[in-house]
Amino acid sequence: MQEKDKKEVEEFYERLKVELDRTTTWPALYLYKFIVPTSDEKIKQIETIFDNTGAVIKTKTSSNGKYTSLSIEVNLDSSDAVIHKYKEVSAVEGVISL
């Protein structure tokens, strides 16, 4: 990742943290939505990130079967915890965070 891209990503997470702290009382339920190319390996990678968190994970494959959406609802203690999970999931190749 180029330096400019890294800066933009960090600025995005800083804005997200401010917004989450402004609108949320922690701990709170947080809903993640991700889309990945349909691959058991990629889906498992994301599910593993949320292992032992009590997360409820729902998957749905697109009509053409190329993509799978994951909705993950989990109780988290802080905006930092939300952002930490986003960063972990961003390491999965091809993932799109919504």
UniProtKB/TrEMBL annotation:
<protein>
    <recommendedName>
        <fullName>DUF493 domain-containing protein</fullName>
    </recommendedName>
</protein>
<dbReference type="InterPro" id="IPR007454">
    <property type="entry name" value="UPF0250_YbeD-like"/>
</dbReference>
<dbReference type="Pfam" id="PF04359">
    <property type="entry name" value="DUF493"/>
</dbReference>
<dbReference type="InterPro" id="IPR027471">
    <property type="entry name" value="YbeD-like_sf"/>
</dbReference>
